[in-house]
Specification:
This protein has 13 helices and 9 strands. The chain has one domain: Alpha-Beta Barrel (TIM Barrel). It has helices spanning 2-11, 22-26, 43-48, 68-85, 95-104, 123-131, 162-174, 185-194, 218-226, 237-240, 249-263, 292-300, 305-324; strands at 15-16, 53-59, 89-91, 107-114, 134-138, 177-179, 199-200, 231-233, 268-270. The strands form 2 sheets. Strands 1, 2, 3, 4, 5, 6 and 7 form a 7-stranded parallel sheet that branches. A two-stranded parallel ribbon has the order 8-9. Bound molecules: zinc ion. Zinc ion binds next to loops.
């Protein structure tokens, strides 16, 4: 079983729809090209995990909201400098870039915003971020911003603002993937009904298995699937099970299995949240090098090779291709 899993995983196109690694890079704590015993993602460990497509999020700390545009520019610069410094890291803005990276055994880094604070309410700033290669937007983090209310503001019942609605339209037109993870429920509903392109939840799990505000109801999962999008099952222990200290790779497989049962295998992907979970990690998924454990777990549950390839990365590739096509 171990060998079958390893070889299937090695041949598959593997993607991860969310990590917070840029934070350490920006602060100068780590370089992507150097294997570290800190954190969970760097290029050597991405190769160990056979990852082709890695989304790198720009997450703005609340202490930087006042100068969020500057922060976002500095984070984008940190990412682009890593692309310049490493031959095995390319920036992906089209599906051709993903396929070229796969063929070359390189990592395709996709720049995303986790929370639109750096846009400071300006579509002109969005257009400039797009020029820098931004291809995925998580509309909010946990709090209120110019676009919408995050999940910690859910009590307000607030959905998308006028700017948030304009942003959905602009992302559809420009070919930027829309992400509803962290968004309060009313905003999720708005985004799903307004978007003409597939919508993802880059790092969220099923509320039916773990009742956490960051997880998705069955109705939300069905809504994401109806757009042609997918849920990136996430490894953050708190979102896997209530007794988070017991979280393991088996819980990740449980969430994948639940979502597959609800909406089908085309609407599930991986969204690790590596480097966004502090020292916590589920047993068996301590860092990105351990991703073959997911392939092994899916094989053990009786998943066929095509279904496993879909979950590991082809679903993400399909959505990225559809959203960025012609943009
Ligand atoms: Zn997050």
């Amino acid at each position: 079983m171990e060998n079958e899993a390893t070889s299937l995983h090695r041949q598959a196109f593997v993607s991860d729809a969310h990590c917070d690694t840029l934070l350490d890079v920006l602060e100068g704590k780590r370089k992507l090209g150097e294997r570290s015993d800190k954190g969970q993602i760097d290029l050597p460990r991405l190769h160990d995990g056979h990852v082709t497509a890695q989304v790198f999020a720009i997450w703005t700390p609340p202490s930087r909201y006042a100068d969020a545009l500057r922060y976002g520019m500095e984070a984008a610069d940190a990412f682009l400098r890593e692309v310049d410094a490493n031959d095995d890291l390319i920036q992906a803005t089209t599906v051709d870039d993903l396929d070229a990276a796969f063929a070359d055994g390189a990592v395709a880094g996709i720049l995303s915003l986790e929370g639109v604070e750096p846009l400071m309410g300006s579509l002109a700033v969005l257009r400039n971020f797009h020029r820098l290669g931004l291809r995925l937007i998580t509309l909010t983090w946990n709090f209120r911003n110019e676009a919408a209310d995050g999940v910690k503001e859910s009590v307000t019942g607030g959905g998308l603002t006028h700017f948030g609605r304009d942003l959905v339209e602009a992302c559809n037109e420009m070919g930027i993937v829309l992400d509803v993870s962290h968004l309060a429920p009313a905003g999720v509903e708005d985004a799903l009904s307004l978007s003409r392109k597939p919508v993802v939840a880059s790092h969220s799990n099923a509320k039916a298995l773990c009742d956490h505000p960051r997880n998705l109801t069955d109705e939300q999962i069905k809504g994401i699937a109806a757009t042609g999008g997918a849920v990136g099952v996430t490894f953050l222990p708190d979102f896997l099970r209530k007794d988070r200290e017991n979280a393991s790779v088996a819980d990740v497989i449980d969430h994948i299995d639940y979502i597959v049962g609800l909406v089908g295998v085309e609407h599930v992907m991986l969204g690790s949240d590596f480097d966004g979970m502090g020292d916590r990690a589920p047993r068996g998924l301590e860092d990105v090098s351990k991703l073959p454990a997911i392939t092994a777990g899916l094989l053990e549950r009786g998943y066929g090779e095509d279904d496993i390839r879909a979950i590991l990365g082809l679903n993400f590739r399909r959505i990225f291709a559809e959203v960025t096509a012609g943009a």
